[in-house]
Amino acid sequence: MSGIFRTLLIVAVAVLAGALAVQNNDQTSLRFIVWQTQTLPVWVFLLIALAIGVVLGGGSLLVDYARARRQLAREHRRADEATERALAAERELEALRARPVAVEPELRDRIEIVEEEDPESTAVSRPGRGSGTYE
How would DSSP label each residue in 42-93? Predict the structure, then answer.
């Protein structure tokens, strides 16, 4: 919320509260079961009711906010764990790619492995047949 909008909202609420207080200045008392208040203006009781509502509503919002933060933290932990598992799998894949591949002796004269700078390439050269890429 922008600063000017917030200021205008506060001023509007203050003006309305002032009008409420001026128009509801009659003296009254409240009775509840066996409890009775002293005689006060109506606007005081309205202000007390408003304060109770703000506290209860704010408390409810705080509970929801705390629940959402806990869930967000849980999701961040799950994402971090998934990232760690993915990195471990990548490290394992790189280790497997770095291992030498054993070629059976009867196939050595038929296949010549071509060394390239690109580790992703799977190009092989076969005598008499040209070279191809296998994926």
Answer: HHHHHHHHHHHHHHHHHHHHHHHHHHHHHHHHHHHHHHHHHHHHHHHHHHHH
56-67 confidence digits (pLDDT tens): 888 888 999 999
Dist. CA 57–CA 49, nearest whole Å: 12
SS3 state of residue 16: helix
Angle between helices 42-98 and 3-23 (to 10 degrees): 150
> 18-42 pLDDT, tens per residue?
888 788 888 888 888 888 888 888 8
Contact 106, 90 (CB under 8 A): no
Cβ neighbours of residue 17 closer than 8 Å, sequence gap 6 or more? 47
- What does pTM read for this prediction? 0.46
